[in-house]
Design a protein that fits this description.
The structure holds two protein chains of two kinds. By secondary structure, chain A is mainly beta. Chain A has no helices and eleven strands. Chain A has one domain: Immunoglobulins (Immunoglobulin-like, Sandwich). In chain A, strand 9 and strand 10 form a beta hairpin. Chain B has a single domain, classed as Immunoglobulin-like (Sandwich), CATH 2.60.40.10. Chain B is built from no helices and eleven strands. In chain B, a hairpin with a 5-residue loop joins strand 7 and strand 8. The model of chain B has no long low-confidence stretch (mean pLDDT 94). Classes of the chains: A mainly beta, B mainly beta. At the A-B interface, strand 5, strand 9 and strand 10 of A face strand 4, strand 5, strand 9 and strand 10 of B.
C-alpha cells in the first residue's frame, strides 16, 4: 500500500527557474516529512524536513510548503542549478523514536543550462 | 567523522544462494534501518534494529533477516535469493530518542542471476 504519492515522475527546468515537486499522504499519524536528494550511485541524502505544526520551512534555495488539511506537501527549489539535477524523494515517518520512513516514488529533476 | 559505510559495494549472486550485507552506522548512532531500492523506485523499508533487537519490520518475507552487534553495526541476510531481490540495499542510521533524522549509506548493489 503506497502511503505517499509523488508527482511529477520527471521534471525539466531551465537554469534559474523554480522546480516544484508535490506529494500527498494518507496516514494522518505521520508527523515528520523529510525530503531526500539522491545522485546516481549514491544513497539518499537528507535535504530538508518539516513537522506538521508549521506550514513552511525554508533553507537556502529549498522550501517546503505543508498543507495539513489537504494532506499535501511540496518542495520548491528556487534558482535551480544544473548541480541540482538528481532524483528527489518525499517521505513521511511516525516519530516517538520509531523512525520507519515511507518514501514516495521519486522525481527525476534535470536542470538545463 | 565517518558517515554510514556499507560493504560490499557490488555483489553478484546466483538464484537460490544466500547473501550477507554489512553496515557500520554513523558515529554516535545506535539505530540501523535497512531499505531495498529497486531500479527507478523509492526505497522500501525492510526492518530496523535497536539494542540488538528487531524493532520494526516492513512487508518482506522471512528470507530477509538481520542482526545488530554490540558496536551497533548490522548485517542483512537474504536466503534463497530470487531474481526479484536484485536491487540497491541501503542502510540508514539514526539516534533513537533525540532525532528523526536518518543518514543513509551509499548502498550495496545486489544482482541476482
Amino acid at each position: 500500500q503506497q502511503q505517499v504519492k509523488q508527482s511529477p515522475q520527471s521534471l525539466i527546468v531551465q537554469k534559474g527557474g523554480i522546480s516544484i515537486i508535490n506529494c500527498a499522504y494518507e496516514n494522518t499519524a505521520f508527523d515528520y516529512f523529510p525530503w531526500y536528494q539522491q545522485f546516481p550511485g549514491k544513497g539518499p541524502a537528507l535535504l530538508i524536513a518539516i513537522r506538521p505544526d508549521v506550514s513552511e520551512k525554508k533553507e537556502g534555495r529549498f522550501t517546503i510548503s505543508f498543507n495539513k488539511s489537504a494532506k499535501q506537501f511540496s518542495l520548491h527549489i528556487m534558482d535551480s542549478q544544473p548541480g541540482d539535477s538528481a532524483t528527489y524523494f518525499c517521505a513521511a515517518s511516525i516519530g516517538g523514536g520509531y523512525q520507519k520512513v515511507t518514501f514516495g516514488t521519486g522525481t527525476k529533476l534535470q536542470v538545463i543550462p | 567523522d565517518a558517515g554510514v559505510t556499507q560493504s560490499p559495494t557490488h555483489l553478484i549472486k546466483t538464484r537460490g544462494q544466500q547473501v550477507t550485507l554489512r553496515c557500520s552506522p554513523k558515529s554516535g548512532h545506535d539505530t540501523v534501518s535497512w531499505y531495498q531500492q529497486a531500479l527507478g523506485q523509492g526505497p522500501q523499508f525492510i526492518f530496523q534494529y535497536y539494542e540488538e533487537e528487531e524493532r520494526q519490520r516492513g512487508n518482506f518475507p522471512d528470507r530477509f533477516s538481520g542482526h545488530q552487534f554490540p558496536n551497533y553495526s548490522s548485517e542483512l541476510n537474504v536466503n534463497a535469493l530470487l531474481l526479484g531481490d536484485s536491487a540497491l540495499y541501503l542502510c540508514a542510521s539514526s539516534l533513537t530518542g533525540t532525532s528523526y533524522e536518518q543518514y543513509f549509506g551509499p548502498g550495496t548493489r545486489l544482482t541476482v542471476t
